[in-house]
Amino acid sequence: MIRARRTALRLGAAGGAVALTALLAQTPASGAFTAQTGTGGSAVTAATSFCVAPGPQDLVVTNDSWTDEAAPDTAHGTTPALEVQSGPATNHRTYLRFTLPSAPHDCDLISAQLRLKVSASTPGRTVAVQRADPTQSPQWTAGGLTWNNQPGPVGAAATSAAPAPGAVQTWDVTAQTTVLMTGPNNGLVVKDATEGSAGPITQKYDEQTTPSGSPAVLRLTWG
Description:
Helices cover 3% and strands 45% of the residues. The chain has two domains: 3-45, no CATH class; 55-222, no CATH class. It is built from one helix and 15 strands; from the N terminus they run E-E-E-E-E-E-E-E-E-E-E-E-H-E-E-E.
């Protein structure tokens, strides 16, 4: 489908300002457009390519689980909540993996936002998100992940203050997702920013199997 866009520019030219109006016809993927003043002294050229699928794209989590330092050999892939906890020798970490798409034609990743529905929390507690170590082989699975075999968190951390229960907590994970898209993708680790604190201090989030819950979402914005 061809879309039309009218762009008005005011350009300086000999003898005074010239009002230039260009009607640009855009194909879905590419095309160059040039508008020029009658004297040929001023011109504007549109981009030669366009993002064919701009805007947000929500990805629902593919695999999720959590680990418990106090039960280091126990898997929690089927429990109805994800947990993050800070406590002396009782830390919990949540692991998430999303199936990442290729970028739409001529699009760049503008932002990536991780969204988790909170079911229980200590409001204001800082929660961090990092990439799971991509060198782990084989990669973790929801049914087999334990504290003893979990991949460690690597790279920069995105942080967010825990909201009240019932809210959706969000993190800007653009930098982390950009790296994951180049592979290998071993997912994300959600952890308390200060593990080992007196407590324990626990955050709980909806899991894929939470009854009437909202599983984790990664919102990608292309442009």
